[in-house]
Amino acid sequence: MSVKQSVRYFLLALACFSLTAVAQDSSQTNITGSGTKGKIAVFTGTHSVGNSIMHQASGNVDVSGGVSATKGGSSANNTVTGNNTQTDSLGAGAAVFGETSTSGESNTGSAWGNGAGGTWGDGGKNDSSTGLANYAVIGTTDNKAAGIFQANGGSYYTLFGYNFATGSTGYMFAVDNGDGAGCNIDPEGDLSCTGSKNAVVPVDGGKHQVALAAIESPKNWFEDFGSAQLVGGVATVRFDARFIQTVNSGVEYHVFLTPNGDCKGLYVNQKTATDFEVRELGNGTSNVKFDYRITALRKNYEKVRFADHSREFPLLPDGSIRPAQK
Q: Could you give phi then psi for residue 256, rounded to 5 degrees?
């Protein structure tokens, strides 16, 4: 074989090899399919694409379905992160917004203008047939706390709750355990607990802290204490100007007397809505000092006795939660 023939065979082989390579590259990179403007593509096959459930519009990426995110590795990194880089003190908005509803954002949420937040949960509008919506935020766990709130500002509450309902409806707070024991704050702001209400104070030089329980009664009594002195066996004690604004002294109230010296004894001669008169027994004329205790019914609670709060604790024996009721 001549040199010229050898060169021809080499060039022919090189050309065939090049064509084969081009054909192989073409089959590997040829992508088929079609899409819609604004939709984000997804592979529907090895070499084909189509519309995904995501689309981009007005600077946002919208997902017509759920988003599932799983992350392992460093505990210092979040699985899902949202950052709203607008200025501080916004009237509304959040870095992450979550809503569960078939009828759109709740009226409460759409009217919100008290400030932006890192996370916002919305339960949606009331359903037209049931009148119910969903919970806005849920926290569940088998161990540790289901929710933690920590703040570092002296001007704001760590946790603040507000119910817009009026007309003596809308409970502000409730907490119960698995036995149904707990506390709630009703629409009038009354605190009701199945346990005692205590003040915890240090004793033994701070080595221990003990509970002093509040005195409980079937009726709403307010108390005041003071001291006075007889003059010729008689004294008139007037109610404190502020205390009298908190009670109804026009109905029953009680006065308990303790003399601070030797005398024949003391008694309440008469009561009015503004004062009471104290006299010494047996027409005595001493000038003895005495202490008194006044117990009067709280204003607007005069007829309340053993108020029934059975329906205010929302946790049912099966663990479900029903709306609180008066």
A: -115, 130
Q: For the range 266-274, what are the long-range contacts, defined as Cβ-Cβ under 8 Å and sequence gap of 24 or more? A: 266/230, 266/290, 273/244, 273/249, 274/238, 274/239, 274/244, 274/249
**Cβ pair 97, 60 in contact under 8 A:** no
Taking the complete model, does pTM exceed 0.70, yes or no? Answer: no
For the chain, 326 residues long, give each residue's pLDDT as a single digit of tens.
564 555 455 455 555 555 454 444 445 568 888 888 888 888 888 888 888 888 888 777 888 777 877 877 666 778 788 887 877 777 788 888 888 888 889 988 888 888 888 898 999 888 877 778 888 999 999 999 999 999 998 888 898 888 888 888 888 888 888 888 889 888 888 888 989 999 999 999 999 999 999 999 999 999 999 999 999 999 999 999 999 999 999 999 999 999 999 999 999 999 999 999 999 999 999 999 999 999 999 999 999 999 887 777 666 666 676 666 65
| Strand ranges (E), the chain | 32-33, 39-45, 48-57, 60-63, 94-99, 117-122, 173-176, 182-185, 191-193, 198-203, 208-213, 221-229, 234-238, 253-259, 266-271, 275-280, 289-297
- Give the single-character DSSP code of 139: -
Distances (CA, A) of 5 to 1, 13, 16, 19: 6, 12, 17, 21
Q: Residue 81, Cα to own-chain centre: how many angstroms?
A: 23
Token pair in block for residue 100: 């569960």
Determine whether 186 is exposed, middle or buried from the number of CB atoms within 10 Å of its CB (0-12, 13-18, 19+).
buried
- Sequence letter at residue 177: N
Diameter of the chain measured on Cα atoms: 156
How far does the chain reach from its first CA to its final CA, in angstroms?
110
Give CA–CA dist 42/55, Å, rounded.
11
Closest CA to 239 of 282, 284, 299: 299
Is the distance from CB of 20 to CB of 12 less than 8 angstroms?
no
